[in-house]
Amino acid sequence: MTLLAVEGLTKRFGGVLAAKSVSFALDEGEMLAIIGPNGAGKSTTFNMVGGQLRPDGGSVMLAGKDVTGLPSRALCRMGVGRTFQVAQTFLSFSVLGNVQMALLAHHGQTRQLLSDAAVMHRDAALALLDRVGMAAQAGRPIGELAYGDVKRVELAIALAAAPRLLLMDEPTAGMAPSERTALMALVAGIARAERIGVLFTEHDMDAVFAHADRILVLVRGEIIARGSPEEVRADPEVQRVYLGHSGTRAAGRARRPVHG
């Protein structure tokens, strides 16, 4: 079932056309990656879908409802979760406290006294941490964790809103190679088991080609290729403008950070 339908998204910054008639769809339980070189329009497209930017043209449909231009807070209430390139957590809180705060926000209870908040949604928070392999670390201050573990906690925070759609902006940024593989495998497993659609941008091509069901390649604001990892890797135009000349070697070379 189609969860997200994007049609003709366009965005201009002055005289620069950052996204030109970008269209794609995302199904429930599917992992869809957006990749491309610097300045390709990835972040612009991602932020129009996520409500950080209002498009100049086109539409965004979530489960059949027009959500074009709605702010991120409204989208969150409609089942859109998000993680960020730099993890968004409360460093002075424990691991458990961070997830409890996310649950309080989801239930509209952020004005609770701290003494009450500390015991609210404790079981639900522990269950979320168990899903991401962090229950054993629940009592630790989040500032003591390795960065890969912080990213797992951020995933639990995003899941606290019970999202149908999860937007992940360079989820493996700053992580060691083994941590990247483990995190993306975890996300893929959760997405498929719980029918959560995942739209992500990523600079690590190993993570993209290993875990995405489909890939969109943007160059200068336009989609130049789309398809399965195998189809995109073999596409001559993608190899020429982004990956290089050899499919598997190119994936390794394209692991450098890319933005846009």
UniProtKB/TrEMBL annotation:
Spans through the membrane: none
Q: Where does the ABC transporter domain start and stop, copy by copy?
A: 4-245
Record GO cellular component, one term: plasma membrane
- InterPro entries per the UniProt record, alphabetical: AAA+_ATPase, ABC_AA/LPS_Transport, ABC_transporter-like_ATP-bd, BCA_ABC_TP_C, P-loop_NTPase
Keyword match ATP-binding: yes
MF annotations from Gene Ontology: ATP binding; ATP hydrolysis activity; L-isoleucine transmembrane transporter activity; L-phenylalanine transmembrane transporter activity; L-valine transmembrane transporter activity
> What Pfam families would the database entry show?
ABC_tran, BCA_ABC_TP_C
Going by the UniProt record, its keywords in alphabetical order are: ATP-binding, Nucleotide-binding, Transport
Single GO biological process annotation from the record: L-valine import across plasma membrane
Q: Does the keyword Hydrolase apply?
A: no
Q: What is this protein called?
A: ABC transporter ATP-binding protein
Species annotation: Neoroseomonas lacus
